[in-house]
């Protein structure tokens, strides 16, 4: 087999390798969901803290409300005693009146605290609800992204798996040393080990070829490499299909 024929066969391998490489890169570019996961975890922690804060606020409010109820009951007893008519001693009535005034003051004081705690519990409830919503949304977004990535990865891997036997079939027709050389370049050069050209440009790195390289290529006697990107070059002795002429590899 002549070198020209050999390179034409290698070009068939390259066309399939380019398709495989493109899919491998597409898989790598997919969102792993790690950032979204971190964000969801952060919001989960914030939500847990807000829940604890709300429980604390509600417990404090409950305690003060119970305390208020107790003082109000005490005051009701004192009030009843004061106006029952059972006590007639002015000194004793005066003391009871003082007791009532003291309890009234205590009630006003606790009521103020209760109002403040109600506001705090309300604020804590708002914060908890807001963070609950944010955490749910972040979790959903993460799960959706993971789902999309898994589906897309599976699709691309299936396509790669379908391309592999085709690749092997074409590769089996290329002489082993040339194939090894090509594979070595391809692995170091973004999945492209060889390029076929029909003009004075390297289709892989888009650099103008020197007259010497062009001459060697047209001769087709020796293996020729691009002086810029070091990929194997081949001259398109047969006209390339229209869709390959633009950016042929
Ligand atoms: Zn090049």
Question: Hetero groups bound?
Answer: zinc ion
The major beta sheet can be summarized as: 3 strands, mixed
- The CA-CA distance between the termini, in Å, is 22 Å
Q: Percent of residues in helical segments?
A: over 70%
* Order of helix and strand elements from N to C terminus: HHHHEHEEH
Radius of gyration: 42 Å
Count of separate DSSP helical elements: 6
Which topology of the largest domain does CATH recognise? Helix Hairpins
Give the integer mean of the pLDDT values. 94
Strand arrangement within the widest β-sheet reads: 1-3-2
CATH classification class of the largest domain: Mainly Alpha
Q: Assign the structural class, choosing from mainly alpha, mainly beta, alpha/beta, alpha+beta, or little secondary structure.
A: mainly alpha
Using the 3D structure, state the CATH architecture of the largest domain.
Answer: Orthogonal Bundle
- Which overall shape is indicated by the principal axes computed on the Cα atoms? rod-shaped
Low-confidence stretches: none
Report the portion of residues in β strands.
under 5%
- Secondary structure tally: strands: 3
The total number of structural domains is 2
């Amino acid at each position: 087999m002549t070198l020209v024929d050999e390179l034409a066969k290698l070009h068939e391998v390259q066309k399939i390798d380019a398709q495989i490489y493109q899919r491998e890169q597409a898989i790598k570019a997919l969102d792993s969901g790690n950032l979204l996961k971190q964000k969801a975890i952060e919001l989960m922690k914030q939500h847990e803290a807000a829940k604890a804060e709300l429980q604390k606020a509600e417990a404090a409010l409950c305690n003060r409300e119970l305390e208020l109820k107790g003082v109000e009951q005490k005051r009701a007893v004192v009030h009843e005693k004061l106006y029952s008519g059972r006590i007639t001693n002015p000194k004793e009535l005066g003391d009871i009146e003082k007791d009532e005034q003291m309890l009234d003051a205590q009630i006003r004081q606790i009521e103020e605290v209760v109002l403040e705690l109600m506001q705090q519990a309300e604020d804590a409830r708002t914060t908890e609800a807001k963070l609950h919503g944010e955490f749910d949304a972040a979790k959903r977004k993460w799960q959706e992204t993971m789902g999309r990535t898994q589906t897309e990865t599976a699709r691309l891997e299936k396509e790669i798996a379908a391309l592999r036997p085709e690749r092997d079939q074409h590769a089996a027709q290329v002489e082993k040393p040339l194939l090894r050389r090509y594979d070595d370049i391809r692995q170091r050069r973004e999945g492209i080990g060889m390029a076929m050209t029909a003009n004075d440009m390297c289709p892989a790195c888009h650099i103008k070829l020197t007259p010497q390289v062009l001459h060697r290529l047209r001769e087709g006697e020796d293996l020729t490499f691009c002086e810029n990107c070091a990929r194997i070059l081949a001259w398109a002795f047969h006209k390339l299909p229209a869709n390959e002429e633009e950016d042929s590899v």
